[in-house]
Amino acid sequence: SDPALVARARAAKEALGDSVFVLGHHYQRDEVIQFADVTGDSFKLARDAAARPQAPYIVFCGVHFMAESADILTGADQKVILPDLAAGCSMADMATFDQVEDCWDALADAGIADRVVPVTYMNSSADIKGFVGRHGGVVCTSSNAKRALDWAFAQGEQVLFLPDQHLGRNTAVLEMGLSLDDCVVYNPRRPSGGLTREQLQNAKMILWQGHCSVHGRFSKAAVDEVRERVPGVNVLVHPECRHEVVNAADLVGSTEYIIKALDAAEPGSSWAIGTELNLVKRLANAHPDKNVMFLDKAVCFCSTMNRIDLPHLVWALESLVRGEVPNQITVDAETAHYAKVALDQMLALP
Ligand code: CIZ
Ligand code: SF4
């Protein structure tokens, strides 16, 4: 990265001292990660921000829904800043509040709204988390999705899983013993999700038709290809990948799981990783004694994560030095209240 920008970022951070806390998601660029006070997945970062009440400014190097979660979990006197407002998440954008309200109406029309417990992945807007909190549901991450679903099925007979169909399906089928036939996909662009009344009534898992535009692109063919090319390779993928990819892999787990698996791996072992490319490159650099490779050449960086680059970080930090608060992310009090109900329910999972 440009040495002049590195020097400016360093100077601005030094001038701000303890008043700024910089969070870096694992999928961020190296040029940004070098200035992060902590790194983590979305949930760990939101909690880390809350654990720093003395820092009035949280610069969140990640995407919009993550900054919202940080705003919900931090104190009222902490301001959360997203260095580029265009850093959204295509998956979170696939479930809008209006679409989810329409879906709930469709479930009511089918006579099942009182039997369905909504569960939303962390990767959703604050509006959706608030909706789920208002309707007795829970938030989950890719590390606790099974526990969240176990809890949900103890509260009701059916689950509406938002917005990532792959995490929902993979967890239900691979970890809970449900079958693919127990799952239906609700398409928000069609009346009643494109499902009949019977389909809605008989499904155990109603999966929202959303996916990650990065993880959803890994293919089964790439798994087969790497196994042929690299004898003994361990294929490790994120549960946001498609079911056939997860089925073909050796190991499946969250970002934090992937990082720990590489730490524990034998020197000389080979690993093909199906997750975001910035993280895979960082893991390859951190483990020169292991053969770490990216699973699929057809997949690349998360384009919205990559919007946060060093120029945007420098701009955000220098604005703070001048006493301006750029790009503050706020969630209105009522939405935040109900979103926190669903987040607290997650924290209370057995
Ligand atoms: O795919 C993502 O964006 C993930 C895994 C985010 C997170 O940290 O929860
Ligand atoms: Fe969203 Fe996928 Fe990017 Fe994560 S990697 S921020 S889920 S588009």
Automatic annotation (TrEMBL):
Keyword Ribosomal protein: no
Essential cofactor(s): [4Fe-4S] cluster
Positions of iminosuccinate binding: H25, S42, Y121, M122, N123, S142, H238, P239, E240, T255
Catalytic activity: iminosuccinate + dihydroxyacetone phosphate = quinolinate + phosphate + 2 H2O + H(+)
Cellular localization per UniProt: Cytoplasm
Alphabetic keyword roster: 4Fe-4S, Cytoplasm, Iron, Iron-sulfur, Metal-binding, Pyridine nucleotide biosynthesis, Transferase
EC number: 2.5.1.72
One GO cellular component term: cytosol
Principal subcellular localisation of the protein: cytoplasm
GO biological process, one term: 'de novo' NAD+ biosynthetic process from L-aspartate
Gene Ontology molecular function: 4 iron, 4 sulfur cluster binding; metal ion binding; quinolinate synthetase A activity
Annotated positions binding [4Fe-4S] cluster: C89, C212, C302
Textual note on the cofactor: Binds 1 [4Fe-4S] cluster per subunit.
Pathway: Cofactor biosynthesis; NAD(+) biosynthesis; quinolinate from iminoaspartate: step 1/1
Stated role: Catalyzes the condensation of iminoaspartate with dihydroxyacetone phosphate to form quinolinate.
Family note: Belongs to the quinolinate synthase family. Type 3 subfamily.
Name assigned to this protein: Quinolinate synthase
